[in-house]
Amino acid sequence: MSSLQGYTVPGLPLVREGDDLAALVKSHFELQDGDVLLLASTIVAKAEGRFRMLEDYRPSPRALKIASDLGKDPRFVQAVLEESADVLLERPFLLVATRFGHIGVNAGIDQSNVGEGRILLLPEDPSASAEAIRERLHCDCAVIVTDTCGRPFRTGVAAVAIGWAGIGPLRDWRGERDLHGRPLEITLEAVADEMASAANLLMGEAGGGTPAVVLRGLDYPRCGQSLFRTEEQDVIRRHLRS
Amino acid sequence: MSSLQGYTVPGLPLVREGDDLAALVKSHFELQDGDVLLLASTIVAKAEGRFRMLEDYRPSPRALKIASDLGKDPRFVQAVLEESADVLLERPFLLVATRFGHIGVNAGIDQSNVGEGRILLLPEDPSASAEAIRERLHCDCAVIVTDTCGRPFRTGVAAVAIGWAGIGPLRDWRGERDLHGRPLEITLEAVADEMASAANLLMGEAGGGTPAVVLRGLDYPRCGQSLFRTEEQDVIRRHLRS
Fold first, then answer.
1. Are B29 and B144 found together in one domain?
2. Do B171 and B222 belong together in one domain?
3. Do A200 and B185 touch (CB under 8 A)?
4. Residues 6+ apart with CB under 8 A from A132
5. How confident is the model at residue B206 (pLDDT cuts 50, 70, 90)?
Protein backbone atom coordinates (compact mmCIF):
# COMPACT_ATOMS: atom_id res chain seq x y z
CA MET A 1 0.00 0.00 0.00
CA SER A 2 1.36 3.41 -0.95
CA SER A 3 0.53 6.28 1.30
CA LEU A 4 0.78 10.02 1.35
CA GLN A 5 0.94 12.30 4.36
CA GLY A 6 0.27 16.01 4.32
CA TYR A 7 1.00 18.38 7.20
CA THR A 8 0.50 22.06 7.73
CA VAL A 9 3.57 23.82 9.10
CA PRO A 10 2.18 25.00 12.43
CA GLY A 11 2.79 28.27 14.19
CA LEU A 12 4.33 30.32 11.39
CA PRO A 13 4.27 34.04 12.19
CA LEU A 14 2.95 36.59 9.69
CA VAL A 15 5.64 36.84 7.04
CA ARG A 16 7.34 40.19 6.50
CA GLU A 17 9.71 41.56 3.89
CA GLY A 18 13.18 40.12 4.31
CA ASP A 19 12.09 37.07 6.29
CA ASP A 20 14.06 33.89 5.63
CA LEU A 21 11.26 31.45 4.77
CA ALA A 22 13.57 28.43 4.84
CA ALA A 23 14.69 29.25 8.37
CA LEU A 24 11.10 29.96 9.46
CA VAL A 25 9.86 26.62 8.15
CA LYS A 26 12.79 24.71 9.62
CA SER A 27 12.22 26.23 13.04
CA HIS A 28 8.58 25.05 13.01
CA PHE A 29 8.77 21.71 11.20
CA GLU A 30 11.27 18.88 10.93
CA LEU A 31 11.70 18.21 7.23
CA GLN A 32 12.85 14.81 5.99
CA ASP A 33 14.67 13.96 2.77
CA GLY A 34 12.15 13.48 -0.02
CA ASP A 35 9.59 15.85 1.49
CA VAL A 36 7.87 18.40 -0.74
CA LEU A 37 7.43 21.83 0.85
CA LEU A 38 4.58 23.83 -0.66
CA LEU A 39 4.40 27.55 -0.01
CA ALA A 40 1.53 29.85 -0.93
CA SER A 41 2.78 32.48 -3.36
CA THR A 42 1.58 35.19 -0.97
CA ILE A 43 4.18 34.42 1.70
CA VAL A 44 6.96 34.10 -0.86
CA ALA A 45 5.95 37.44 -2.34
CA LYS A 46 5.70 39.07 1.09
CA ALA A 47 9.17 37.83 2.07
CA GLU A 48 10.48 39.26 -1.21
CA GLY A 49 8.87 42.63 -0.61
CA ARG A 50 6.55 42.49 -3.60
CA PHE A 51 4.12 44.96 -2.03
CA ARG A 52 3.27 47.98 -4.14
CA MET A 53 1.15 51.06 -3.46
CA LEU A 54 -1.64 51.65 -5.97
CA GLU A 55 -0.88 55.38 -5.86
CA ASP A 56 2.54 54.68 -7.39
CA TYR A 57 1.06 53.46 -10.70
CA ARG A 58 0.42 55.84 -13.60
CA PRO A 59 -2.29 54.30 -15.80
CA SER A 60 -1.60 54.20 -19.54
CA PRO A 61 -4.40 54.94 -22.02
CA ARG A 62 -4.80 51.19 -22.47
CA ALA A 63 -5.11 50.67 -18.72
CA LEU A 64 -7.69 53.47 -18.49
CA LYS A 65 -9.74 51.88 -21.28
CA ILE A 66 -9.64 48.37 -19.79
CA ALA A 67 -10.37 49.71 -16.28
CA SER A 68 -13.38 51.60 -17.58
CA ASP A 69 -14.74 48.48 -19.33
CA LEU A 70 -14.24 46.32 -16.24
CA GLY A 71 -15.18 48.86 -13.55
CA LYS A 72 -11.75 48.40 -11.96
CA ASP A 73 -9.23 50.84 -10.51
CA PRO A 74 -7.06 51.96 -13.48
CA ARG A 75 -3.95 51.86 -11.27
CA PHE A 76 -4.66 48.22 -10.51
CA VAL A 77 -5.06 47.48 -14.22
CA GLN A 78 -1.78 49.27 -14.88
CA ALA A 79 -0.08 47.06 -12.29
CA VAL A 80 -1.47 43.96 -14.02
CA LEU A 81 -0.24 45.15 -17.42
CA GLU A 82 3.24 45.86 -16.05
CA GLU A 83 3.47 42.27 -14.75
CA SER A 84 2.28 40.81 -18.06
CA ALA A 85 4.11 39.56 -21.12
CA ASP A 86 0.87 39.06 -23.05
CA VAL A 87 -2.82 39.90 -22.63
CA LEU A 88 -5.12 37.02 -23.63
CA LEU A 89 -8.46 38.60 -22.72
CA GLU A 90 -9.35 42.18 -21.75
CA ARG A 91 -12.96 41.39 -20.87
CA PRO A 92 -15.00 40.22 -19.01
CA PHE A 93 -11.86 39.75 -16.94
CA LEU A 94 -8.21 40.50 -17.53
CA LEU A 95 -6.47 37.22 -18.42
CA VAL A 96 -2.74 37.52 -18.98
CA ALA A 97 0.48 35.57 -19.29
CA THR A 98 2.88 36.80 -16.63
CA ARG A 99 6.46 37.56 -17.56
CA PHE A 100 7.51 34.22 -16.08
CA GLY A 101 4.98 32.32 -18.21
CA HIS A 102 2.01 31.60 -15.95
CA ILE A 103 -1.47 32.38 -17.30
CA GLY A 104 -3.93 33.79 -14.82
CA VAL A 105 -6.51 36.47 -14.13
CA ASN A 106 -5.06 39.83 -13.05
CA ALA A 107 -1.51 38.40 -13.21
CA GLY A 108 -2.26 36.82 -9.82
CA ILE A 109 -2.11 40.19 -8.07
CA ASP A 110 -3.64 39.95 -4.62
CA GLN A 111 -5.64 42.66 -2.92
CA SER A 112 -6.53 40.64 0.15
CA ASN A 113 -4.38 40.22 3.24
CA VAL A 114 -2.24 43.24 2.37
CA GLY A 115 -4.08 46.34 3.63
CA GLU A 116 -5.83 49.31 2.05
CA GLY A 117 -4.30 50.86 -1.08
CA ARG A 118 -1.66 48.16 -1.27
CA ILE A 119 -1.34 45.25 -3.63
CA LEU A 120 0.88 42.19 -3.57
CA LEU A 121 2.48 41.11 -6.85
CA LEU A 122 3.39 37.49 -7.49
CA PRO A 123 7.09 36.69 -7.01
CA GLU A 124 9.04 37.96 -10.01
CA ASP A 125 10.35 34.47 -10.82
CA PRO A 126 8.69 31.88 -8.58
CA SER A 127 10.97 29.02 -9.66
CA ALA A 128 14.01 31.11 -8.76
CA SER A 129 12.34 31.86 -5.41
CA ALA A 130 11.74 28.14 -4.88
CA GLU A 131 15.35 27.32 -5.72
CA ALA A 132 16.70 29.96 -3.32
CA ILE A 133 14.51 28.63 -0.51
CA ARG A 134 15.43 25.04 -1.31
CA GLU A 135 19.14 25.79 -1.10
CA ARG A 136 18.70 27.21 2.38
CA LEU A 137 16.73 24.16 3.58
CA HIS A 138 19.91 22.04 3.40
CA CYS A 139 18.02 18.81 2.76
CA ASP A 140 16.96 16.78 -0.26
CA CYS A 141 13.50 18.36 -0.52
CA ALA A 142 11.47 19.85 -3.32
CA VAL A 143 9.90 23.30 -3.03
CA ILE A 144 6.74 24.34 -4.86
CA VAL A 145 5.22 27.82 -4.92
CA THR A 146 1.44 27.58 -5.26
CA ASP A 147 -1.33 29.91 -6.36
CA THR A 148 -5.06 29.38 -6.76
CA CYS A 149 -6.55 29.93 -10.21
CA GLY A 150 -9.87 29.72 -11.95
CA ARG A 151 -10.06 27.25 -14.81
CA PRO A 152 -11.86 27.21 -18.15
CA PHE A 153 -14.77 24.74 -18.26
CA ARG A 154 -14.88 24.12 -14.49
CA THR A 155 -16.36 26.10 -11.62
CA GLY A 156 -14.25 27.27 -8.70
CA VAL A 157 -10.55 27.72 -8.19
CA ALA A 158 -7.86 25.12 -7.57
CA ALA A 159 -4.24 25.50 -6.63
CA VAL A 160 -1.49 25.02 -9.19
CA ALA A 161 2.29 25.23 -9.09
CA ILE A 162 3.67 28.53 -10.36
CA GLY A 163 7.27 27.80 -9.35
CA TRP A 164 9.25 24.71 -8.40
CA ALA A 165 12.72 23.51 -7.50
CA GLY A 166 14.15 20.08 -6.81
CA ILE A 167 11.30 18.46 -8.71
CA GLY A 168 10.38 17.86 -12.32
CA PRO A 169 6.81 19.18 -12.40
CA LEU A 170 5.73 16.64 -15.03
CA ARG A 171 5.98 12.88 -14.63
CA ASP A 172 6.68 11.28 -17.98
CA TRP A 173 4.84 7.97 -18.42
CA ARG A 174 6.24 7.42 -21.92
CA GLY A 175 7.50 3.89 -22.32
CA GLU A 176 5.01 2.60 -19.75
CA ARG A 177 2.43 0.14 -20.97
CA ASP A 178 -1.14 -0.63 -20.01
CA LEU A 179 -2.56 -3.93 -18.74
CA HIS A 180 -2.66 -5.19 -22.33
CA GLY A 181 0.89 -4.14 -23.13
CA ARG A 182 -0.08 -1.15 -25.28
CA PRO A 183 1.78 2.18 -24.87
CA LEU A 184 -0.09 4.66 -22.70
CA GLU A 185 -1.86 7.53 -24.43
CA ILE A 186 -1.41 9.82 -21.46
CA THR A 187 2.26 10.55 -21.09
CA LEU A 188 2.77 13.64 -18.97
CA GLU A 189 1.17 13.98 -15.54
CA ALA A 190 1.39 17.41 -13.95
CA VAL A 191 2.46 16.11 -10.55
CA ALA A 192 3.52 19.53 -9.24
CA ASP A 193 0.02 20.89 -9.95
CA GLU A 194 -1.53 17.84 -8.31
CA MET A 195 0.71 18.39 -5.28
CA ALA A 196 -0.31 22.06 -5.17
CA SER A 197 -3.95 21.01 -5.19
CA ALA A 198 -3.37 18.44 -2.46
CA ALA A 199 -1.62 21.02 -0.30
CA ASN A 200 -4.36 23.57 -0.84
CA LEU A 201 -6.84 21.23 0.85
CA LEU A 202 -4.87 21.93 4.03
CA MET A 203 -3.96 25.58 3.45
CA GLY A 204 -7.38 27.23 3.43
CA GLU A 205 -8.07 30.68 2.05
CA ALA A 206 -9.20 32.84 4.91
CA GLY A 207 -7.33 34.76 7.60
CA GLY A 208 -6.86 31.58 9.58
CA GLY A 209 -5.20 29.82 6.67
CA THR A 210 -1.81 28.13 6.89
CA PRO A 211 0.39 29.04 3.93
CA ALA A 212 2.98 26.23 4.24
CA VAL A 213 2.31 22.52 3.82
CA VAL A 214 4.60 19.51 3.63
CA LEU A 215 3.74 16.41 1.56
CA ARG A 216 5.55 13.22 2.47
CA GLY A 217 5.66 9.72 1.01
CA LEU A 218 5.56 10.63 -2.68
CA ASP A 219 8.00 9.46 -5.29
CA TYR A 220 8.58 12.25 -7.83
CA PRO A 221 10.84 13.09 -10.75
CA ARG A 222 13.76 15.36 -9.93
CA CYS A 223 13.93 17.30 -13.19
CA GLY A 224 11.94 17.97 -16.34
CA GLN A 225 10.15 20.47 -18.53
CA SER A 226 7.95 23.40 -17.53
CA LEU A 227 4.24 23.39 -16.74
CA PHE A 228 3.63 26.51 -18.78
CA ARG A 229 2.48 25.94 -22.33
CA THR A 230 3.94 28.17 -25.00
CA GLU A 231 1.48 29.89 -27.31
CA GLU A 232 2.42 27.49 -30.13
CA GLN A 233 1.45 24.52 -27.93
CA ASP A 234 -1.82 26.03 -26.80
CA VAL A 235 -4.88 25.64 -29.02
CA ILE A 236 -7.22 27.37 -26.58
CA ARG A 237 -4.94 30.39 -26.26
CA ARG A 238 -4.80 30.77 -30.03
CA HIS A 239 -8.59 30.74 -30.17
CA LEU A 240 -8.73 33.64 -27.70
CA ARG A 241 -6.74 35.71 -30.21
CA SER A 242 -9.15 35.08 -33.07
CA MET B 1 -1.46 21.09 12.95
CA SER B 2 -3.87 19.78 10.33
CA SER B 3 -2.91 16.66 8.51
CA LEU B 4 -4.07 14.62 5.55
CA GLN B 5 -3.49 10.94 4.93
CA GLY B 6 -3.85 9.23 1.58
CA TYR B 7 -3.85 5.47 1.06
CA THR B 8 -4.13 3.26 -1.96
CA VAL B 9 -6.65 0.47 -1.56
CA PRO B 10 -4.33 -2.55 -1.85
CA GLY B 11 -4.92 -5.83 -3.61
CA LEU B 12 -7.98 -4.97 -5.69
CA PRO B 13 -8.54 -7.52 -8.47
CA LEU B 14 -9.08 -6.45 -12.07
CA VAL B 15 -12.61 -5.08 -12.15
CA ARG B 16 -15.18 -6.79 -14.36
CA GLU B 17 -18.71 -5.97 -15.47
CA GLY B 18 -21.18 -6.46 -12.65
CA ASP B 19 -18.61 -6.22 -9.87
CA ASP B 20 -19.79 -4.54 -6.67
CA LEU B 21 -17.13 -1.88 -6.19
CA ALA B 22 -18.33 -0.94 -2.72
CA ALA B 23 -17.99 -4.55 -1.56
CA LEU B 24 -14.60 -4.90 -3.25
CA VAL B 25 -13.24 -1.79 -1.55
CA LYS B 26 -14.66 -2.74 1.83
CA SER B 27 -13.10 -6.19 1.65
CA HIS B 28 -9.65 -4.62 1.06
CA PHE B 29 -9.73 -1.48 3.18
CA GLU B 30 -11.31 -0.43 6.45
CA LEU B 31 -13.10 2.84 5.76
CA GLN B 32 -13.75 5.32 8.56
CA ASP B 33 -16.49 7.93 8.81
CA GLY B 34 -15.38 11.09 7.06
CA ASP B 35 -13.11 9.29 4.58
CA VAL B 36 -13.21 10.23 0.93
CA LEU B 37 -13.02 7.28 -1.46
CA LEU B 38 -11.70 8.20 -4.90
CA LEU B 39 -12.21 5.78 -7.77
CA ALA B 40 -10.70 6.08 -11.23
CA SER B 41 -13.47 6.40 -13.79
CA THR B 42 -12.11 3.33 -15.60
CA ILE B 43 -13.02 0.89 -12.84
CA VAL B 44 -16.44 2.46 -12.36
CA ALA B 45 -17.05 2.20 -16.10
CA LYS B 46 -15.79 -1.39 -16.22
CA ALA B 47 -18.07 -2.43 -13.36
CA GLU B 48 -20.96 -0.80 -15.22
CA GLY B 49 -20.17 -2.63 -18.44
CA ARG B 50 -19.38 0.49 -20.45
CA PHE B 51 -17.23 -1.46 -22.93
CA ARG B 52 -18.16 -1.08 -26.57
CA MET B 53 -16.82 -2.67 -29.73
CA LEU B 54 -15.63 -0.23 -32.37
CA GLU B 55 -17.18 -2.43 -35.05
CA ASP B 56 -20.63 -1.68 -33.62
CA TYR B 57 -20.46 2.02 -34.51
CA ARG B 58 -21.74 3.34 -37.85
CA PRO B 59 -19.95 6.62 -38.58
CA SER B 60 -22.13 9.54 -39.63
CA PRO B 61 -20.96 11.91 -42.40
CA ARG B 62 -19.82 14.31 -39.66
CA ALA B 63 -17.81 11.58 -37.93
CA LEU B 64 -16.21 10.62 -41.25
CA LYS B 65 -15.21 14.23 -41.89
CA ILE B 66 -13.76 14.79 -38.40
CA ALA B 67 -11.97 11.43 -38.47
CA SER B 68 -10.40 12.27 -41.81
CA ASP B 69 -9.17 15.66 -40.50
CA LEU B 70 -7.73 14.10 -37.34
CA GLY B 71 -6.42 10.84 -38.80
CA LYS B 72 -8.60 8.89 -36.35
CA ASP B 73 -10.78 5.82 -36.72
CA PRO B 74 -14.22 7.13 -37.82
CA ARG B 75 -15.94 4.58 -35.58
CA PHE B 76 -14.07 6.02 -32.60
CA VAL B 77 -15.13 9.55 -33.59
CA GLN B 78 -18.73 8.34 -33.90
CA ALA B 79 -18.52 6.92 -30.38
CA VAL B 80 -17.26 10.28 -29.10
CA LEU B 81 -20.09 12.15 -30.85
CA GLU B 82 -22.70 9.78 -29.40
CA GLU B 83 -21.43 10.51 -25.87
CA SER B 84 -21.44 14.28 -26.44
CA ALA B 85 -24.02 16.95 -25.82
CA ASP B 86 -21.89 19.61 -27.52
CA VAL B 87 -18.73 19.77 -29.64
CA LEU B 88 -16.43 22.65 -28.65
CA LEU B 89 -13.54 21.94 -31.03
CA GLU B 90 -13.28 19.52 -33.97
CA ARG B 91 -9.56 20.13 -34.52
CA PRO B 92 -6.71 19.71 -33.74
CA PHE B 93 -8.42 17.46 -31.22
CA LEU B 94 -12.02 16.63 -30.47
CA LEU B 95 -13.07 18.61 -27.40
CA VAL B 96 -16.64 17.98 -26.27
CA ALA B 97 -19.06 18.42 -23.40
CA THR B 98 -20.34 15.00 -22.36
CA ARG B 99 -24.02 14.47 -21.82
CA PHE B 100 -23.46 14.72 -18.07
CA GLY B 101 -21.68 18.08 -18.41
CA HIS B 102 -17.95 17.34 -18.23
CA ILE B 103 -15.72 18.93 -20.87
CA GLY B 104 -12.87 16.79 -22.11
CA VAL B 105 -11.02 15.49 -25.16
CA ASN B 106 -12.68 12.50 -26.89
CA ALA B 107 -15.45 12.48 -24.23
CA GLY B 108 -12.97 10.72 -21.98
CA ILE B 109 -13.20 7.51 -23.99
CA ASP B 110 -10.36 5.18 -23.13
CA GLN B 111 -8.58 2.90 -25.55
CA SER B 112 -5.97 1.66 -23.11
CA ASN B 113 -6.43 -1.20 -20.65
CA VAL B 114 -9.42 -2.60 -22.56
CA GLY B 115 -8.06 -4.76 -25.40
CA GLU B 116 -7.97 -4.53 -29.19
CA GLY B 117 -11.02 -3.16 -31.01
CA ARG B 118 -12.71 -2.26 -27.72
CA ILE B 119 -13.25 1.09 -26.10
CA LEU B 120 -14.39 2.04 -22.64
CA LEU B 121 -16.90 4.88 -22.33
CA LEU B 122 -17.05 7.04 -19.20
CA PRO B 123 -19.85 6.13 -16.79
CA GLU B 124 -23.14 7.44 -18.15
CA ASP B 125 -23.76 9.58 -15.05
CA PRO B 126 -20.69 9.48 -12.77
CA SER B 127 -22.40 11.27 -9.87
CA ALA B 128 -25.19 8.69 -9.95
CA SER B 129 -22.49 5.99 -9.98
CA ALA B 130 -20.80 7.62 -6.99
CA GLU B 131 -24.08 7.81 -5.10
CA ALA B 132 -24.91 4.15 -5.78
CA ILE B 133 -21.47 3.09 -4.54
CA ARG B 134 -21.72 5.37 -1.51
CA GLU B 135 -25.03 3.87 -0.47
CA ARG B 136 -23.50 0.40 -0.48
CA LEU B 137 -20.52 1.50 1.64
CA HIS B 138 -22.83 1.93 4.66
CA CYS B 139 -20.64 4.59 6.26
CA ASP B 140 -20.49 8.38 6.32
CA CYS B 141 -18.01 8.65 3.46
CA ALA B 142 -17.81 10.69 0.28
CA VAL B 143 -17.20 9.05 -3.10
CA ILE B 144 -15.49 10.82 -6.01
CA VAL B 145 -15.09 9.45 -9.53
CA THR B 146 -11.88 10.82 -11.08
CA ASP B 147 -10.53 11.22 -14.58
CA THR B 148 -7.34 12.75 -15.91
CA CYS B 149 -7.67 15.67 -18.32
CA GLY B 150 -5.46 18.04 -20.22
CA ARG B 151 -5.89 21.72 -19.38
CA PRO B 152 -5.74 24.91 -21.39
CA PHE B 153 -2.63 27.01 -20.66
CA ARG B 154 -0.78 24.27 -18.76
CA THR B 155 1.24 21.27 -19.91
CA GLY B 156 0.36 17.73 -18.83
CA VAL B 157 -2.75 16.15 -17.43
CA ALA B 158 -4.15 16.32 -13.91
CA ALA B 159 -7.00 14.43 -12.33
CA VAL B 160 -10.36 16.08 -11.73
CA ALA B 161 -13.66 14.94 -10.26
CA ILE B 162 -16.24 13.92 -12.86
CA GLY B 163 -18.75 12.57 -10.34
CA TRP B 164 -19.28 12.89 -6.60
CA ALA B 165 -21.62 11.89 -3.78
CA GLY B 166 -21.69 12.74 -0.10
CA ILE B 167 -19.60 15.85 -0.73
CA GLY B 168 -20.20 19.35 -2.02
CA PRO B 169 -17.47 19.64 -4.65
CA LEU B 170 -17.01 23.37 -4.03
CA ARG B 171 -16.11 24.91 -0.70
CA ASP B 172 -17.74 28.30 -0.37
CA TRP B 173 -15.50 30.84 1.39
CA ARG B 174 -18.07 33.64 1.09
CA GLY B 175 -18.49 35.44 4.36
CA GLU B 176 -14.89 34.65 5.35
CA ARG B 177 -12.54 37.57 5.81
CA ASP B 178 -8.84 38.06 5.29
CA LEU B 179 -6.23 39.10 7.86
CA HIS B 180 -7.35 42.72 7.47
CA GLY B 181 -11.04 41.92 7.83
CA ARG B 182 -11.88 42.38 4.15
CA PRO B 183 -14.14 39.89 2.37
CA LEU B 184 -12.23 37.29 0.37
CA GLU B 185 -12.15 37.68 -3.41
CA ILE B 186 -11.84 33.95 -3.97
CA THR B 187 -15.04 32.35 -2.84
CA LEU B 188 -15.36 28.88 -4.37
CA GLU B 189 -12.61 26.31 -4.00
CA ALA B 190 -12.97 23.18 -6.11
CA VAL B 191 -12.13 20.80 -3.28
CA ALA B 192 -13.34 17.69 -5.12
CA ASP B 193 -10.96 18.46 -7.99
CA GLU B 194 -8.14 19.08 -5.54
CA MET B 195 -8.93 15.75 -3.86
CA ALA B 196 -8.93 14.02 -7.26
CA SER B 197 -5.50 15.50 -7.97
CA ALA B 198 -4.19 14.45 -4.57
CA ALA B 199 -5.45 10.90 -5.10
CA ASN B 200 -3.94 10.71 -8.57
CA LEU B 201 -0.49 11.17 -7.06
CA LEU B 202 -1.01 7.70 -5.56
CA MET B 203 -2.97 6.08 -8.40
CA GLY B 204 -0.42 6.10 -11.21
CA GLU B 205 -1.31 5.66 -14.86
CA ALA B 206 0.32 2.47 -16.03
CA GLY B 207 -0.63 -1.21 -15.78
CA GLY B 208 0.62 -1.33 -12.20
CA GLY B 209 -1.61 1.57 -11.16
CA THR B 210 -4.01 1.39 -8.25
CA PRO B 211 -7.42 2.82 -9.17
CA ALA B 212 -8.82 3.34 -5.66
CA VAL B 213 -7.49 5.78 -3.07
CA VAL B 214 -8.80 6.92 0.31
CA LEU B 215 -8.14 10.41 1.66
CA ARG B 216 -8.53 10.86 5.41
CA GLY B 217 -8.35 13.83 7.74
CA LEU B 218 -10.08 16.41 5.56
CA ASP B 219 -13.01 18.52 6.53
CA TYR B 220 -15.31 19.01 3.54
CA PRO B 221 -18.72 20.41 2.69
CA ARG B 222 -21.49 17.82 2.39
CA CYS B 223 -23.51 19.45 -0.37
CA GLY B 224 -23.31 22.18 -2.97
CA GLN B 225 -23.32 23.15 -6.63
CA SER B 226 -21.71 21.36 -9.59
CA LEU B 227 -18.14 21.66 -10.86
CA PHE B 228 -19.28 21.87 -14.46
CA ARG B 229 -19.64 25.37 -15.85
CA THR B 230 -22.62 26.06 -18.05
CA GLU B 231 -21.91 27.68 -21.39
CA GLU B 232 -23.33 30.98 -20.11
CA GLN B 233 -20.78 30.95 -17.26
CA ASP B 234 -17.84 30.07 -19.47
CA VAL B 235 -16.03 32.85 -21.30
CA ILE B 236 -13.39 30.55 -22.78
CA ARG B 237 -16.01 28.16 -24.16
CA ARG B 238 -17.84 31.04 -25.84
CA HIS B 239 -14.60 32.12 -27.49
CA LEU B 240 -14.16 28.64 -28.99
CA ARG B 241 -17.49 29.15 -30.80
CA SER B 242 -16.48 32.44 -32.37
1. yes
2. yes
3. no
4. none
5. low
